[in-house]
Fold:
Amino acid sequence: MSTTAPKATPGRTGTALLYSLIDQLKTYPDGISLGRGDPDFDTPPHIRAAVEAALREEDPAKPVPTNGLSELRQLISKRVKAVNNIDADPETDIVVTNGGQEAVFLMIQAAVGPGDEVLVADPNYNTYTDAIAFAGAVRVAVPTFVHENYAIDPDRLRAAITPRSRAILMVSPNNPTAAVIPPALVKELCQIAEEHDLIIIADDIYDRFLYDGAQHLSPSSLPGMKKRTMTLNAFSKTYSMCGWRCGWITGPADLMRQVRRLKEGTSGATSIVAQRGGIAALSGPQHTIQEFLETYIRRRKVVMAGADKIGFRYGVPQGGQFIFVDASKFGMSSLDLAKYVLERARVLAYPGRSFGEGWDQYLRVTFLAPEETLATAFSRMHDALKDLG
Amino acid sequence: MSGSARVAEAIRRLTGRAGLQLDAPQPCGVENLGADHPRYALASEARDEAIAALERNETHYTDVGGIKPLREKVASVLKGWGLPATETDLLCPAGEQEARFLALQTLSRAGYKLALPEVVHPGARKAAAMREADATTFAVDANTLEPDLDSAKRALAGGKTALYLESPNRLTGKVIARAKAEAIAAAVKEAGGAVVWDASLVPWLVPGTECVAIGALDGMADRTVTIGTLWPGTGVDAWLIAYLSGPADFVNPARSIKQVIAICTSSPVQWGALGALKSGEDAHKERVAQLADIRAKAVAKAGGRALPGETVNVVAVQVPGGNVASLPGAPAPGDGFGRADVARFLVTPTGEIIEALAVAAGSKSGGAA
Structure:
C-alpha cells in the first residue's frame, strides 16, 4: 500500500466513465452491480401506497414553495431534532432539495466562491469535486489512509489550512471510505472550524447505518456550531428512495436564505410527487430502517470475508453501504482493474480514481445486493483475479 | 447575523448577484393569476402511469437524461416541429427552471458569453447568475418585445455569444415572426454564436399561429438548444418536468451538469409525464379553444392596454404608473421580466381574468385601462 498523500483533483468528473461501465454491465445477463449507491431494496410499500393515494387526491393548483411544502419541512424539523439533535426552524432553517445531490451542489455554491478553498477528506464522493469546481473554488485534499481506516487526522487538517480556506467538508459515514468520524473527533474538527472561522458542510446521508458501535454526531448539534454549519440529508438511502429525488438542507436562517435563492436559480421547487414521498416516509412506520440496517450488517460480513479471501486491504466499514479496498497488489490502474473485473467476473465495482486522483489502485464496492449475490460476486472476482495476484 | 465572518462573507457574495432575487411567495387559490400556466385537473393518464410505475417499483435512479420511452416520445413531438431531435440528444430536466439552468450554464462553461433580452422570464436571469456567468443584455421592441435585431447583432459581435430567446414570449405570448427568426439565425451563424430557445408556451399558441423553431432553420440545428415543457394542461405543473434538446456537443455537457446537480429527474414523475403525453390531443385543443375565447374577452376588457400576444394562456397589460401590486388577481408583476409598467394575467378556464381586468379598468390607481 502506498502512503503517499493522494493528489487533489479539482474539477475532474468521472461521470461519463462510470456510466460507460454501467452500460457495459447491462450487456451481461448475469452481471452483478456493486457500483452505484442505489439500494437494491424497493421503496417500502407503505410509502408508495401513501403517494398513490395522494396522486388520487392532490390539488394540482396548489403552489409548491421553493423551500418545500410546509408539512414536509415540519416533519424534517422533528426528524433532525430526534435523530441528530439539530434545531431547525421549519420556516427559516430548512430547504427541500432534489435529493442529496442537489443539496451537495447548493451547499457548496452557498458556502464558497471563486478562489476559496474547501478542505476535503481525501478520497471523497466525486460530486463534491465537481460542485467545488462549479463554484470556482479549490478542493484541498486532506489525506487519509487505508491503514488508518481512512480517519481524518486533525493535524493534517490544520496543516492544510491557508488564508483562502473557507469551508470544511465533514461526511460521516463517508462515501467512499465508510469511515465514521467519532464524536470526540467531530468536536475537535468543530473547534478547528471555530478557530479559523470555517463554514462546515456536513453530509449526514448515511447517519442511520452504523456498525460495530460506531456513533454519529452531527456538527450542527454542538453548542455554537449551528451558525456556521449546513447539513444535508435525503430519503434516498434511509428509505431506499434514490429515484424519487428528495432531500433537504438545514442550517442557520441567514445562510438558508441564500440556499433558497440558489435553489430558485438552479431548479425552482422540488417535485410535489417527491415531497409527498418524503412526507409518507417521515410520517409513516420506521421499522424498515432497522430492517435495512440488519441486512447491511449481514452483507458487510459477506463483503469483508470476500475481500479478505481476495487479499484486498481495506478500512473496516464503520457505516454506510460501501467498502473501499486497496487493490494495488494487482498492479493495475483502478479503471483497468474495474474493467478487468467487469469483463472477467461480470461484476461492476467503481474505480477509486473517481474519488480522487491518488486512489487509482482502489475500488469502491457496495453492499447493495443480497448476501448470496455478494458471495457470488466476490467468488467470481476471486477467480478472475487469482492469476494476477 | 451569524457572528461568523466567513458566513457573512458568503452571504455578501451571493447577495451581490443581482439576478438571484427571491421570488415572492405564490398566493394560493383561484385568485392567483400570476402563474406561468393555467392549472387543470391531473390527467388520468399521468396519474395511472405514475401509479403503475410505483407498483412496478420504479423507485430507483434512472438514466441521467431520463427514461428512454419518455425521451423517445418527447423527441417525436419535437421532430413534428421540424427539429432534428433524437432521444439520445435530449434530457428531461426537473422543470423549466432546471432546463434554463442546464442550457445557460452549459453554454457559459463552453466559453459562450450569455446575452439575455432586456425583457425575459426572471428565471433566465437567475439561471445565468448562478455561476457569475459573463452575461449581457440586448434590446427588444418596446411594443412587441421581439428582439431588436441590431442590438442582438451587437451582442453577437462581442465575441463567442449565446442568445437567449423566448418564442412565444414569456411575458406577453408574442411569437418571434419567421422573418425575424431567420434574420437572427443568419446573424448567429455569421458570428459563430449559439441560441437557447425557450419554447415553453408553444402548447398554448392560438390555433393557426405559425411559431417557427429556430433550431429547425437551415444551419441552426448544431447551434441551438431548445428548452420547454410539453405538459401544460395535464395537471402536472407541480411535478416539475421539462425537456432540453440540441446537438450532442451541447447536450452531453448538459447531461454532466445534470448528474452533478440531481443525478436524474424523479422517476415516478418521468413515468407520469410519459402518461400525460398520451392524453388526448383533442382534449388539449378544447382547452385551447376555451381559453382563446376567454382571452379575447379579457383583451376587450383591457381596452387597448393589452400587449400583442399569440398564446391563449396570458394577457399582458400596460399599467400606468406601474402600480401592479394594487391590481386584483395577483398578476405576475412585469418588473421581474424587465418591464415594470406591465402586468401579466393568467387566463384560466374559469375566467377570473375577465373580472380582474374589469376591476382594474375601473380602478383609479394602477388601472389597466
